[in-house]
Amino acid sequence: MSDVPIADHALLSDCHTAALVTRHGSVDWLCCPRFDSPSVFGRLLDDDAGHWSIRPVGAFTATRRYLDQTLVLETTFHTPTGTLAVTDAMAVGPNEHPHGHALGNGAPHMLVRSVSCRDGEVRMRVRIEPRAEYGLLRPLMSHVPGGLNIRGGPEWLMLSSPMDLACADSSAYGEVTLRAGDELQFALHRSTWGLEPARIWSQEEIADWLAVTVQAWRAWSKLHQNYEGPWRELVHHSGRVLQGLTFRPSGAIVAAPTTSLPEGVGGERNWDYRYSWVRDASFTMEALWVAACPDEAGDFFTFMTTAAAGAIGPDYPLQIMFGVNGEHDLTERTLPHLRGWRDSSPVRVGNGAWNQHQIDVYGELLGAAHLLADKISEMDCDMRAFLVALADAAVVRCREADHGIWEVRGEPRHFVYSKVMCWVALDRAIGLADRLQAQDRVPVWSAARDEVRERVLREGWNASVGAFTQYFGSADLDASCLMMPIVGFLPADDPRMLATIDAIADRLTDERGLVYRYRTEGGVDGLAGEEGTFLLCTFWLAQALAEAGRVNRATEVFERAAGYANDVGLLAEEVDPATGELLGNFPQAFSHIGLVNAAWSISQARHRAAL
Ligand SMILES: OC[C@H]1O[C@H](O[C@H]2O[C@H](CO)[C@@H](O)[C@H](O)[C@H]2O)[C@H](O)[C@@H](O)[C@@H]1O
């Protein structure tokens, strides 16, 4: 059973795909060549699904860090006889664009692992077990000068290795003793069929790829990261994590690089997040506006315009998520041969939410377009028509029931958050009307905006609960109502908003003060089992408190949530209320988005308070 704590993993990314490395030097997750491709290393989900470990033989302790301003990981193993450092990266290639805009453009599809003995001597062991197609395939392995040829199914990999590895049973294995100053470079290179064959690289070439990758991340960070408020390092790091979740070729952004890390240990709430949700990706663009001044905004809106392919109209709502190249059909299936992390099954690929009706997406997309309008240098006529169509759709869709932000697998309802986001869609479209050359639409958009607002105020407020609730007529609290002041639907100090914030802080939190998105008892969302507290929602609470001028409480809540970041600053989606362990897909864009936005709101609130 695979049971390494979720928090024990660190992220590597080349802006095409990602790898996760454990604290003990094992690459336990790697999908090639895209985020949503089948895994080659999948031990995260099953012991037999493949891994690549490099670690000392015998006892050790390990410490880790990302090299300054990068997503290049350094793990230092301390042993009784000496110290070994392993530096891991997905090579991103040179970042030569004058605005540092091209991070990942020249990625060679290569995982680089550089080992160096820092002092004393250390006996080190390498073991590689590639298992393509989520662990189904045991590849052919053969020796070639300088490494191994690894072939099976869709994968053709070359391992450059300075050690002679013994091959047996589709695994390769070796041990060596390193002394202070010794260095070894390894690289796993993937062939792109018919385009660029994989090859063996020399020790110098691999060291160069690593140096270029460090330099490219630093160049990107230097050019993009201007945030100077509180928690600067955490915000900058979150910006890099969000950048690492972008798919460079298309401009798509994934919600997380993993599938099926559970929201409750042993439960069925296991989903595939390796896709580009309109909602998550729009929020990511907005957070990058704070954390990293994205000049990728144009790419993202081009991706959205292309992926949605103009099919928005009376019969075609906007699809809520896409594959990283804009694919529409993300039909969900299970992988019964995988046991799942800590036996949490089923393991799913694809996502059944792909054809759900969720009307909040118009607001998230137009909200991001409004915030980033100045960064979208070329708003061509297709993009303008697309954004106008979104606002026109919101006019009609705001009256419909939907599955809501939480993608409930039960009956559609009139969710308060969905209506509020329709209000955002119309409000921001009105603000963009000149750029969209759509002044003639403003009267229709304004009338619909006022209608939906009036409905939320009337039907979304529950006087006996003393708060805005989950859907019209509901008595249940829902943390997404914290977004109402954040998007400017109502001022945070409006008595109804203050009452809602207080109700959520008092009644929708666990003993640690972390926020649940809603109560799951009784399967109200159409699913069995419980889940953890939701980090994004906890950051929303901090943000709403900051907006309401309660800066000290906001700071307290922020620090509580940010305190769950692991040793290398990464957050999963949720926290287990019983154990405090991170749960859910990892690292999760939502949580890092929440961290960035809450830090920004608190910095603004402190500034206002100081005036
Ligand atoms: O709660 C059930 C749903 O859980 C997942 O959705 C969550 O993740 C999405 C990606 O981050 C996010 O956009 C959504 O707001 C979250 O509720 C899952 O993807 C759904 O299929 C599932 O129904």
Structure in a nutshell:
InterPro entries: 6-hairpin_glycosidase_sf, 6hp_glycosidase-like_sf, GH15-like, Trehalase-like_N. This protein has 611 residues and is of the alpha+beta class. The protein has helices spanning 132-135, 203-224, 232-244, 278-292, 297-308, 361-372, 381-397, 416-432, 442-460, 483-486, 495-507, 535-547, 551-562, 589-610, and strands at residues 9-13, 18-22, 26-31, 39-41, 51-56, 61-66, 73-78, 82-90, 110-129, 140-144, 147-152, 155-160, 166-168, 171-179, 183-190, 246-247, 252-253, 276-277, 321-322, 333-334, 348-349, 461-462, 467-468, 533-534, 574-575, 582-583.
Account of the 3D structure:
The protein has helices at residues 132-135, 203-224, 232-244, 278-292, 297-308, 361-372, 381-397, 416-432, 442-460, 483-486, 495-507, 535-547, 551-562, 589-610; strands at 9-13, 18-22, 26-31, 39-41, 51-56, 61-66, 73-78, 82-90, 110-129, 140-144, 147-152, 155-160, 166-168, 171-179, 183-190, 246-247, 252-253, 276-277, 321-322, 333-334, 348-349, 461-462, 467-468, 533-534, 574-575, 582-583. The protein has 611 residues and is an alpha+beta fold. It folds into 2 domains: 6-220, Beta-galactosidase, Chain A, domain 5 (Distorted Sandwich); 225-610, Glycosyltransferase. The strands form 6 sheets. The protein has a 15-stranded antiparallel beta sheet that branches. It is globular. The mean pLDDT is 94. It binds ligand LLGJG24Q.
